[in-house]
Amino acid sequence: MCCTESGCVIRSYRPLIITVAPTYTRTHRRTPRMSCALDSITAATKLRRAELDVQRELEAKREEYNRRMAQVKEGEAQLAADRAELQDTLVQYYKFIQENEIKRSRAMRKVAIEEKQRKEREAYIVQLAQRLQMLESKRDEMKMHYEDLEKYQGFLEEVLSRNDGDEYQEPRDIIKRWMTLCDNTSVLQARKTQLEEDLLRTRSSLNLARQRRSTENIALQNRLNEMQMSFESLQKSIKAKQDTLDRKIKQKSCTTRTVSHVSMATANLYERCVLWTRDYSGRGKVETRQKNVLHQLHVICDCLEDFQKVIAQHQEQQQRQAAAQQAAAATQQVAAVKAG
């Protein structure tokens, strides 16, 4: 048998046969038969003894082999037990590691969840603190408002205590009345605002009318100045004509008849002018009749100038009316075009 680290290799041994050659001694002289018998007995004994020795040695070797095989089996069994124990230990170790890893991951998740919950709780606490602060400030404001309104409550109760009629039965009736008055005040305020806006529009339109009136007055003043200038020029021309007439009268005294005719015509015209202007002259006062020809001519000239002014004004009024009609027609046409 040969044992190695990996195992035991068993080798079989064949029985050892020892052949002992017969020995012959020279000291003893025997007979050939006895010698042969003794030799055969000695050889057999020796052979038997050798066989026994070999058998004993083989038994010893076998016992040694069995002992070593038993040790090897015990070692293999111990090794298998150790390996199984080691495998179990390794499995337990791996299981322990996995359990620890699972516990660690659970602990980490739990820590993360607890941290998240802690942050949420802290945020919720901060929010609650802010809300508490806001509610406290609101409570203080409401308390101050209540303290401010408490005097009005006392005033309303005092008003109710002094109320002799049945108009107000409780403070709510007074508050309703006050709210009604506030609504009416709002309506009146809106009406006031509307009236103020109407007043502003009226003022603006009045200012525009005043501007137009001022423009018209300026235009009339210009016309009056022009007429005054024309009147002065007419007076100058009349004076020049009167001077010329005086000279002619002085130069041609022989033309008295013509002058009398002219005087009569002038008197007639003067009378007609007086009759025509009697209702409008001096607010109904009658013109004092004079026989002065120059005065009569002056009156006639004034009457003619008034007639010319009236005619000119009438023409201008007709022109303005025509222009207004044309503007209205143009406006209607533009409106019709826009509507179409």
- Total beta-strand segments: 2
Span of the ends, CA to CA: 134 Å
Q: Radius of gyration from the CA trace?
A: 81 Å
Largest sheet: 2 strands, antiparallel
Contiguous low-pLDDT stretches (5 residues minimum) are 1-30
Structural class: mainly alpha
Beta percentage is under 5%
Mean pLDDT, nearest integer? 80
Coiled coil: 44-75, 102-152
Domain DUF4200: 48-161
Organism: Leishmania enriettii
Keywords: Coiled coil
Structural description of this entry:
This protein is rod-shaped. Helix 3 crosses helix 4 (293-339). The protein is mainly alpha-helical and 340 residues long. A hairpin with a 4-residue loop joins strand 1 and strand 2 (8-9). Among the domains are: 2-94; 257-321. The protein is built from four helices and two strands. The chain has a two-stranded antiparallel ribbon with strand order 1-2. 83% of the residues lie in helices and 1% in strands.
Write a brief caption for the model.
It holds the Pfam family DUF4200. Residues 44-75, 102-152 form a coiled coil. This protein has 4 helices and 2 strands, in the order E-E-H-H-H-H.
Present the secondary structure layout.
Elements: E1 2-3, E2 8-9, H1 32-162, H2 171-251, H3 256-277, H4 293-339
Antiparallel strand pairs: 1-2
Helix pairs in contact: 3-4
Pfam families: DUF4200
Protein name: DUF4200 domain-containing protein
Organism: Leishmania enriettii
